[in-house]
Write a structure and sequence with these properties.
mainly beta, 1 helix
């Protein structure tokens, strides 16, 4: 099934070639967890500070549905 994955801030360096903006389409297994998707993108669970599915906070053990949008943010420092 196809989902859209968006990587922000320092994670944008892990975007595949051909990504549009910070997002790219990804074909995944229906049983695949968000954590396994992140692992495949070389993003450790401790690195992902905020995980959103369709704009709603989610956890690494959750799974996705066809057409979902997964957004992942690292910790962001600011002043």
């Amino acid at each position: 099934m196809k989902v859209k994955v968006c990587l922000y801030a320092s994670f944008s360096s892990r975007l595949p070639e051909g990504a549009e903006g910070n997002c790219f389409p990804m074909e995944i297994d229906q049983a695949q967890s968000i954590g396994s998707i992140l692992s495949g993108l070389n993003i450790g669970l401790g690195e992902a500070k905020l995980i959103l599915v369709n704009g709603i906070h989610s956890k690494p053990e959750a799974s996705l549905k066809e057409g979902d949008r997964l957004a992942v943010f690292p910790p962001i420092a600011g002043g």
